[in-house]
Amino acid sequence: MLIFHRSGCYGGTFEGMRCPRCSCTEDRVVDSRSASDGSAIRRRRECGGCGARFTTYERLEEVPLVVVKRSGEREQFDRAKVAAGVAAASKNRPVGAEDIAQLSAAVEESLRFVGGEVTYEQVGLAVLEQLRRLDEVAYLRFASVYKGFSGAGDFKREAGMLERASAER
User: Fold this and answer.
1) Bridge-partner residues for 33, per DSSP?
2) How far apart are CA 123 and CA 112, in angstroms?
3) How far apart are CA 158 and CA 156, in angstroms?
4) Which stretches in the chain have pLDDT values below 50?
5) What's the whole-model pTM score?
6) 106 with 91: CB under 8 angstroms?
7) Which one, 75, 80, 104, 105, has least CB within 10 Å?
8) Comparing C-alpha atoms, which of 34, 74, 69, 28 is closest to residue 52?
């Protein structure tokens, strides 16, 4: 079994991919199919030099998602941190572990559309957007910490905005 990285996008080159038996770079694809839950493509290849068959896997190489914190420090996005914050906000609410995992994945996916580098504000707003749909009480709890509520008036204001958004749906 040979695993390789593809340089570039479609039409890229396969530098370093050689037949494991004779090191020839000429080959043809005999069979292609999805592997590993669709996260990779398995290809059976036949060497043009010696006729040996071998398997390669193509996998998407994800670009790391970086979060710029308040201090200006940069750190890699951590889905577990999002899940922990949502779990704390959802304590004693009808929100299961699977719901939290799906919400965390949806947050990460939405942030990847923004780009490779996002701010902590964008992360917080993405979490709030997903929580609004999942559980309004958990939304208010998360918003109180994220937005730094200082009194009952802040809760009232946010609850009013939440009611208006729910009425518009």
Assistant:
1) 42
2) 11
3) 6
4) 1-14
5) 0.63
6) no
7) 80
8) 28
pLDDT of 54 reads 93
For 60-135, strand residue ranges (E) read 66-68, 74-76, 117-119
Both tokens assigned to 133: 């749909």
DSSP assignment letter at 39: T
Backbone CA torsion sign across 46, 50, 51, 53 = negative
> Residue 8 carries which side chain, given as an amino acid letter?
G
Compute the distance between CA of residue 136 and CA of residue 128 in angstroms, rounded to an integer.
Answer: 10
- Sheet of strand 27-35, all strands in order from the earlier edge strand to the far edge: 2-3, 53-59, 40-47, 27-35
| Total residues found in the chain within this entry | 169
- Cα–Cα distance for residue pair 36/110, rounded to 1 Å: 23
Whether 132 contacts 139, CB under 8 Å: yes
Residue with tokens 């090191």: 23
Cβ(118)–Cβ(66) below 8 Å: yes
Closest CA to 1 of 75, 56, 68: 56
